[in-house]
């Protein structure tokens, strides 16, 4: 969602239609992000409700130092973290992100490459990825393909899931993600790369 310049003024003026549109646009993504911090969908829904109440109460104090979207997601993350601790999920997110970023990882199975001593194509693809744009149907728009993508995201480790959700589904830029999750740019880039690699592998398996 692109925030028009007058949106904040409309919200502060009590424009119910503007607020309802904001809720409709952001709630699905807020729920998915909240679910990464808390143990159930029901608790995630409560966190999102608390977030919208926080947005209403904090609009007049919002100074615009970040985008409205970033501010909303930071409210959500703060409330989700608090609720997660209350529900005994006590591992700090920054620590979780660091652990995931530092863990060993191969973006592609090494067996898909030719050996280093291959006489003609050392370390080149032995089994290259398919060109999905050459498929006769538009697979990316197919409901089953989208289901596979979302299922792959749901299987990701928590920090990777958060980062790819914010970057590729919500549409946040790198700075927004770092500010929202309180992680370094380096960790954000590593987590996004790993998340995208795993989703791409799941999509490739489905399409081939």
Q: What is the beta-strand fraction?
A: under 5%
Gross morphology is elongated
Q: State the distance separating the first and last CA atoms.
A: 33 Å
Mean pLDDT: 80
CATH-derived architecture of the largest domain: Orthogonal Bundle
CATH C-level of the largest domain: Mainly Alpha
In CATH terms, what is the fold-level topology of the largest domain? Arc Repressor Mutant, subunit A
Structural class, from secondary structure content? mainly alpha
- SSE topology string: HHHHHHHHH
Total domain units: 2
Number of DSSP strand runs: 0
Q: State the low-pLDDT regions, or none.
A: none
Question: Nutshell version of this structure?
Answer:
By secondary structure, this protein is mainly α. It has helices spanning 7-12, 16-35, 41-58, 68-86, 93-102, 143-154, 158-170, 174-181, 185-207. The model has no long low-confidence stretch (mean pLDDT 80).
Write the layout of secondary structure elements.
Blueprint: H1 7-12, H2 16-35, H3 41-58, H4 68-86, H5 93-102, H6 143-154, H7 158-170, H8 174-181, H9 185-207
Helix pairs in contact: 2-3, 2-4, 2-7, 3-4, 4-8, 5-9, 6-9, 7-9
């Amino acid at each position: 969602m692109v925030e028009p310049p007058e949106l904040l003024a409309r919200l502060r003026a009590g424009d119910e239609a503007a607020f309802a549109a904001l809720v409709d646009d952001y709630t699905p993504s807020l729920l998915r992000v909240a679910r990464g911090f808390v143990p159930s969908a029901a608790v995630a829904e409560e966190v999102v409700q608390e977030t919208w109440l926080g947005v209403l109460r904090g609009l007049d104090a919002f100074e615009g130092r970040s985008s409205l979207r970033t501010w909303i997601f930071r409210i959500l993350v703060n409330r989700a973290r608090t609720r997660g601790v209350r529900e005994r999920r006590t591992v700090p997110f920054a620590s979780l992100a660091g652990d995931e970023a530092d863990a060993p990882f191969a973006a592609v199975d090494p067996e898909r490459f030719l050996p280093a001593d291959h006489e003609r194509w050392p370390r080149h693809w032995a089994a290259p990825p398919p060109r999905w744009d050459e498929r006769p149907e538009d697979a990316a728009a197919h409901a089953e393909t989208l289901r596979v993508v979302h299922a792959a995201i749901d299987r990701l480790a928590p920090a990777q899931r958060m980062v790819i959700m914010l970057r590729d589904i919500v549409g946040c830029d790198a700075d927004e993600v770092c500010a929202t999750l309180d992680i370094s740019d380096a960790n954000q880039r590593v987590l996004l790369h790993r998340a995208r690699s795993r989703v791409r592998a799941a999509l490739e398996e489905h399409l081939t």
